[in-house]
Amino acid sequence: MNFTRWSARLPGTQRRAAARTEQTASPDRRGEGSVPAARAERLTDATPTVPAVDELRVREVLDRIPSLVALVHGPDHRIAYVNDAYTSAFGVRNLGERAREALPELDALGLFPLLDQVQRSGKSRTVKSRKAPDGRSYTFTCTPVAQGDGKGGSDGRGVLVFATDVTDHAEAAERLRASERRQRETAVTLQRSLLPQELEEPDDLRIAATYHPGGTEAAVGGDWYDVITLGGGRTALVIGDVMGRGVRAAAVMGQLRTAVRAYARLDLPPHEVLQLLDGLAAEIDANQIATCAYAIHDPNEGNLIYSSAGHLPILVRDENGKVLRADEPTGPPLGTGGWMHTSGSIPLAPGSTAVLYTDGLVERRDADLDEGIAALERALAGATGTPQVVCDRLVRSAGVTPDHDDDVAVLVLQHPARSGPEGELFHNAALELLGGVEAAPRARAFASGVLTSWRFPADLHDLGVLATSELVANSLQHGTPPMRLRLRRTDRRLIIEVTDGDDHLPRRRRAEPGDESGRGIAIVATIASNWGCRRTPGGGKAVWCEFALPGTRST
Fold this sequence. Notes:
- 33% of the residues lie in helices and 26% in strands.
- It has 16 helices and 21 strands.
- The strands form 4 sheets. Strands 7, 8, 9, 10, 13 and 14 form a 6-stranded mixed β-sheet that branches. Strands 2-1-5-4-3 form a 5-stranded antiparallel β-sheet. A 5-stranded antiparallel β-sheet has the order 6-16-15-11-12, with helices on one face.
């Protein structure tokens, strides 16, 4: 096989040959005043002659380069040439043999379809970082070549295989990918550890939540959710999203979630909780912002009181399938400062389902955000079943997959419409406290009658009447009208609550032996499973206590 004949059509060889012909025909045709060419024949005899690059034979060049080179020709890819580097890597190859049998390493790399394509199209193709049987990685470039006379059709075409050893680069890239995988696993582990391991279970709500990390390291972010029982039958629901990615975002999320739980124990209105979070977010990291929605469910009110710091609107589906969107009020994200947040309200009657979610569920690069929210509304309108079923259906309808480009958090809550035997476990009773000090005996009589009708055991009945007496007496002494007593029972607890128009919150203190007052709250705290107080939105306060029913656990 004449290698020169095959190499005559390689890129640039014809131009260089033409240039040499022209120089031979006109050895010294230069204009007046031009600079003589620096050619080898003008040097002294003592200086060794160095051939020009275009005077070197192609084979001499290819034999000396460290890259692997092989030349095959014809439709069955018979071997025309392999260089020394190729022989050193894979052993001696016999010229003229079919490459499929003589070059098994190319077959193992899946290169023969590429050789066919290059031969048919006449265009070069490259495949990057393929691992060869010798354990090293190569980037292969396949270039079409033809005989010097250009005849022979496909029989006259060959393919030059040029392989560059990129093992060091491939190993470095694999180390980088492994490092990224470890970082992502660390971020996901941290993220999941900071989320609730088990959701709290309010008496009046059924709740489910899910978190899906993004499919790439860059997509692991700071989404979080939480459910916090506030006492007195009320429940706080939180969802948020820290802007940013990776471990840092997850760490900031953990700090904000811990702060929310601490502020929730103060039983503040939603907008005051966000106001406190706003200042804390700026202290944690002035360059880090977060969105958050904080809502409180009160079964006595039949609605959600909420506030939003730049977060997506809460969606509520009523028992008829109509979906409402809680658009207002919405303030800027946490950490921006200088904004007074406000609270809004959205109905959550028995039979309703509410959804809190992060932007990964509805935001897509090729669609408007409002379109994503509208699609979620349509999916929610047709979603029935338990909260977990609804949660899974919404995630599937949004097309969330393991390689999703953003993390997703969804919190679904239902206020079930109870009837039959289950409905008998939930009752409410209320009494307006009018007439001054004589309201106390009326309140005790009212509580005794209600607890008797609810068929509580005698010991729980007596404790409930005693707690009612102490709370009412405290309100009559320190509060202002209007005053109201409310009794509520669930399947797990008895709740007693007294409201009045004074916003001074009572506190538990130790009364001295000679004191005639100051023991009421201490007595309530001693006999009840839990107690607390809060300011009410319209002014005034509510003081409550609760007793766990026999056979249940208090949460």
